[in-house]
Amino acid sequence: MDDISINSSDEDVSSLGSTTPSESLVEKDTYKLDREVHPLNSKTAVKMNRRKSSSLFRTMSNNIISRTSSIVEAVKDDSQYAAERDRETLERADYGAEVYAGSIMREPIDLEKDADESETEKQQMDTPPDGTFWGWTTCICVMLINTFSWGTNTVYGVFLEYYVSSNHFPGANMEEYSLIGGLCLGMSFMFISVANTLIRRFHYKSVMLFGTAIIVICFCTASVATSIVQLVMLQGFLMSIGFALTAGPTFVMIPSWFLKKRSVAQGIGAAGVGLAGVIFSKPIELMIQNGGNYRWALRMLGIVCGVMLTISIALVRTRRPLQVKNDSLIKAIWQNFTRWDILFRSPMMCVIMWNCIYGLAFAVLLFSFSSYSTAIGLTRSQGSMVTLVQSIAQTLGRPVLGIMSDRWGRANTTILSTTFLGIISLVWWTFIKSYPNLLVFSFITGFFMGISWVNFTPLCADVVGGGDDLLAAVSLLTFIGGIPQIVAEIIGLKLKRPEMSQPFLYCQILVGIACILSAAILLPFREWKIKKFLTVRKDLIEDDVKRSEKDEIRLRRYELMLERTFRGRLIRMFYPMKV
Fold first, then answer.
1. 406 domain residue, yes or no
2. Are 556 and 5 within 8 A, CB to CB?
3. Which of 229 and 118 is assigned the larger pLDDT?
4. What does the pLDDT look like over 385-440, one tens digit per residue?
5. CA dihedral 97, 101, 105, 106 (to 10 degrees)
6. What are the respective helix, strand and coil percentages of the chain, to the nearest 5?
7. Are residues 60 and 137 in the same domain?
8. Where does 428-504 have alpha helices with state H?
């Protein structure tokens, strides 16, 4: 029942269980009996044809059902094996904690060598505990750190609306305002590598508290900025450094505590970015509308963020010490960006390009709904509600995306989510003209748009494993992926056509194409990972002296699927298994 290979031989057909043994004989006997009993008239011929058609239909139905059942069983079999291998791989890839502790230096994961490893060695591995009190406490603290650092960028649209409508900085243009949001998001990603290198030299809490101080200072000084240049430097460039130093180290904290629940924990931690919009959007809007003074809104943000970040950093813990004494600081930072052996691995390039292109769509979606609401005739209050709904959806969606990734596979969930976002942007967003429709659309997009935050680190680990290689991979991915996010909002602004009946049409097309293209770029990564799993399983079966009949069927299936041809790659790329 497991053979899905395409073969016309009787042996393969019988192995699929496609026909019952006596159906062809029954058909012949029925035909002979009809010939003997009935004269060859038109009615008899019609009855004979009906019987033959009915018999043929039953045979074809049985064949289709049998083949479909065989395919389903084969997919279940391979998916179960892939899930088991994935768990074993995660046990060996501890997301860089070993290198930070200076205790174990591991090479990238080799699934073929891993298959031969003894059970004693596996038991000796220091695997994450998958939770514990301090593990879940750290997870909640990471969520709060993201809320009061990166998350505050989700409410920048409220300040932007005030800056533009009041002409607070005379002579400032929309490109300069848009650059502030882009710098906060993109530059902070580009500085993550520096932050993660600093925590290897200094205590991670010292680095994070220094970043918190920068955030508080930037919010307070931005409230007294007198020119757009000062605002760009304070609320844009310097703020991004504070975000990176405060929230960047959290990428290596959750993985050291969780194994099987890793994607769920990552989703909970990433949910903090959307939670900030839920907490701050309405209070800031009311402060600006009622008091007419944005300055105290910025100061309030700085004070609240400073207090909450200090408490969260005090409670957060790593399972192992992160400080090590190694090469010079500058050399260590430089090495993270010059790991060409990692950058030029084809699956790693797929993950980096996916994150880079999808980041463009993510930034446009994040910053466009407020101005789009105004463009279709909605009030400022309604536009703020649309942004709030999107933030709520992000908060709810990221943990759910983590659960989906654990259940159906990270690559599968990522590809399907980004494809779905691209499709609805093209066929739905372009036709939205009413407030209720925009609310529903903002919730759905907000629910799925955080997929990159949930899965980009685990996808990197799939390629390079753990240790120093993962640190370099994440550094390369965030540095390259931060570049388009800096200019994404400016690109969206340039694509806006106020004179058209649909001023955001080109922005919507950009988002749709970017999402679909990024999903397509990730397909070769999926093909590579499936090939790895199937190759390991094929080698294990071939090395086994006592093969069962099912093993022989699996071998024939794997020979077809592992062909070094375009057909083989296409089959692996779209083979419906958990990856």
1. yes
2. yes
3. 229
4. 888 899 899 889 988 998 898 888 889 999 999 999 999 999 999 999 999 999 99
5. -10
6. 80, 0, 20
7. no
8. 435-448, 451-464, 467-495
Longest CA–CA span in the chain (Å) reads 105
Q: How many CA atoms lie within 13 A of 13 on its CB side?
A: 12
Q: Is residue 104 part of a domain?
A: no
Which of 106-110, 160-164, 493-497 tops mean pLDDT? Answer: 493-497
Domain that holds residue 211: 133-529
Distance (Å, whole) CA 388 – CA 372: 14
Domain count for the chain = 2
Torsion of CA 232, 233, 238, 240, to 10 degrees: 20
Q: Rounded CA gap, 70 and 436, in Å?
A: 46
Cβ(504)–Cβ(546) below 8 Å? no
Give the model's pLDDT for residue 301.
Answer: 92
pLDDT at 568: 87
**Minimal CA–CA distance to 160: which of 383, 480, 478, 415?**
383
C-alpha to C-alpha distance for 19 and 2, rounded to whole angstroms: 16
3-class secondary-structure state, position 245: helix
Q: State the Cα–Cα distance between residues 111 and 116, nearest whole angstrom.
A: 9
Q: Which CATH number goes with the domain that contains 266?
A: 1.20.1250.20
Q: Does the pLDDT at position 66 exceed 80?
A: no
Is 120 within the bounds of a domain?
no
Phi first, then psi: give them for residue 75, nearest 5 degrees: -65, -45
